[in-house]
Design goal:
The complex is a heterodimer of chains A (255) and B (301). Chain A has 255 residues and is an alpha/beta fold. Chain A is built from seven helices and 15 strands. Chain B has one domain: TIM Barrel (Alpha-Beta Barrel), CATH 3.20.20. In chain B, strands 3-16-15-10-9-8-7-4 form an eight-stranded parallel β-sheet. A four-stranded antiparallel β-sheet of chain B has the order 5-6-14-11, with no helix packed on it. A two-stranded antiparallel ribbon of chain B has the order 1-2. Classes of the chains: A alpha/beta (255), B alpha/beta (301).
Chain lengths: 255, 301
């Protein structure tokens, strides 16, 4: 039986004004693949919903998962109060992750808080990839970790302080990045632009979708996204982000 | 050990703990976390006579000690349900209660008729969903309509029928009495309370549907009160639900008059909530020296 478990926090670190890192020793690390997420729980039953947080790094040897998250609400703000040595309840790994990896020349694209899950994927690919990261400003969290994988790292910033001034697609074009597949996670407009770019270049494109979730396991149908075809499970043009995603082929979903 | 079984409209459950419709799918997903054989019953997500797409997202939001949802009864339709979901549940030694929804009496009846020759043990009729524009709560807030639709469904149904009641009414006992008069074998209550949440930074509704049904521990005292009131008003069995998260909540609900209880939102925080409730109730009965869980039903007058 799968179960909710108690993870042990090994380290915490504030990366920017509102981005935090938490390393958690947990059983979930053994089964995790890049692009999956875990339900993280507040130690308060007054907060009835888990917080779905994407997995940033997977270290099976030490049994540790790294979560890098932005503080947006009560849950993520509470997570920042936790210290090394504290425990946190979590359940996972959940969702499908990036599993179709048989391409020669992959490009990984992360935007904002969609950057973290790309790190685990870059590590799984042994750095044999180009990574395009979109940030608001010069707070380019995790950039050094991406460079450590050996991947070629390209940056775009909204304010032009680092790398290309503009979107990730602007940075791809400005740097002449070539690829036969795109793996991406980030805000919907970014995913939409990448889907269009991939169609134009006739290359494969995978997108990791985000939606407000409740159960995280596919039971409640809270977190659906629109699909281009009838979904095999739901029999309507809707699919469960938590269970059937969060990673989809770009052509499967309406962006 | 105390006898945990209860008999609800002629159907015996090994214990009075079931899942609340819409929070547990058809058991497939949570079946990876919970041994479904241990549950008194699995109550499935509402199913209609054709697939429903449901509402736009966001569909869920957290509120203090609770949540709002406006799924809009997304479901794959009765044909897929009978080919896939019911056979899945047939593998388990648990009572199968199928929740039925519709936009019109005829749509409800289409589902009920298809389920006549199925393995469903009981039907729960959702006349109380606050998140769909036609059917659902439109039926459940008018006593005359409740009696009519109950009678129409009872006439066609082969299995015992449970009418699921809305708390979004002035006097829930009037609705319960109407269901009883229409021939309902049992009632279940409460469905969610209609709520709203506004994002003050974006100055916009948090749910795409604007309103949603509130569930979770915050609504439990309201549910206990309504179960108690209904227990004084009707003689058919009551399935109590609304914010049950612990065995203490479940015992309280039975003392108020429920013959069985459903666990809903608590599954999201604790996938083992149903089992924790069963084990906790067993411990309570033992500690109190009570030989049967049936002795709890309506014991507080």
């Amino acid at each position: 039986m799968k179960r909710k478990e108690i993870g042990k926090i090994k380290a915490v670190q504030q990366l920017t004004a509102d981005i935090y890192r938490m390393d958690v020793e947990c059983e979930a690390a053994q089964a995790a693949v890049p692009g999956q997420f875990c339900n993280l729980y507040m130690a308060s039953e007054a907060h009835v919903l888990p917080r779905p947080i994407s997995i940033c790094q997977i270290d099976k040897e030490s049994g540790t998962l790294t979560f890098v998250y932005r503080t947006v609400g009560q849950g993520t703000k509470w997570f920042t109060t936790l210290q090394a040595g504290d425990t946190i309840e979590l359940m996972g790994p959940l969702g499908n992750g990036f599993t179709e990896l048989g391409y020669n020349n992959p490009m990984l694209v992360g935007g904002g808080v969609g950057v973290p899950p790309m790190l685990g994927l870059a590590q799984a690919l042994d750095g044999k990839c180009t990574v395009v990261l979109g940030y608001r400003d010069a707070q380019t969290f995790l950039k050094a970790e991406f460079e450590k994988t050996g991947a070629t790292v390209v940056i775009a910033t909204d304010d032009g302080s680092v790398g290309t001034h503009g979107t990730v697609v602007d940075a791809i074009k400005a740097n002449g990045v070539e690829a036969d597949v795109i793996y991406s996670c980030g805000p919907k407009p970014m995913l939409r632009a990448l889907k269009g770019y991939a169609e134009e270049k006739k290359i494969a494109c995978y997108v990791s979708m985000e939606e407000r979730m409740a159960c995280g396991v596919g039971a409640c149908l809270g977190c659906v996204c629109e699909t281009t075809e009838k979904d095999h499970h739901s029999k309507v043009n809707n699919t469960r982000v938590c269970k059937d995603g969060p990673v989809f082929r770009a052509e499967e979903v309406v962006l | 050990m105390a006898d945990m079984s209860v008999t609800l409209a002629g159907v015996t459950l090994k214990n009075p703990v079931m899942t609340a419709s819409g929070t547990f799918g058809s058991g497939m997903e949570y079946g990876e976390y919970v041994d479904l054989n241990r549950l008194g019953a699995v109550v499935t997500k509402g199913v209609a006579d054709h697939p429903w797409t449901g509402n736009a997202t966001p569909r869920v939001a957290e509120v203090p000690s609770g949540m709002l949802n406006a799924i809009g009864l997304q479901n794959p339709g009765i044909d897929t349900f009978m080919e896939r979901d019911l056979p899945f549940l047939e593998q388990y030694d648990t009572v199968k209660i199928v929740n039925v929804c519709g936009h019109s009496t005829e749509e409800y009846l289409n589902v009920v008729r298809k389920l006549r020759n199925s393995s469903a043990d009981m039907l729960e009729i959702n006349i109380s969903c606050p998140n769909v524009s036609e059917g659902g709560i439109a039926f459940g807030t008018n006593p005359r309509m409740v009696e009519e639709i109950t009678r129409a469904i009872k006439y066609e149904a082969k299995q015992p029928i449970i009418m699921k009641l809305s708390p979004n009414v002035t006097d829930i006992t009037e609705i319960a009495k109407a269901a009883e008069a229409g021939g309902a074998d049992a009632v279940s209550l409460i469905n969610t309370l209609t709520g709203m949440k506004i994002d003050i930074e974006r100055q916009a509704f948090l749910l795409a549907n604007k309103t949603g049904g509130m569930s979770g521990p915050a609504i439990h005292p309201i549910a206990v009160r309504m179960v108690y009131q209904v227990a004084q008003a009707v003689s058919i069995p009551i399935i109590g639900m609304g914010g049950i998260a612990t065995w203490e909540d479940a015992v309280e609900m039975m003392l108020a008059g429920a013959m069985a209880v459903s666990i809903g939102t608590a599954n999201f925080y604790n996938p083992r909530a149903t089992l924790d409730v069963i084990e906790g109730m067993e411990g309570y009965l033992e500690r109190k020296g009570i030989s049967s869980v049936k002795e709890l039903i309506g014991a507080v007058k």
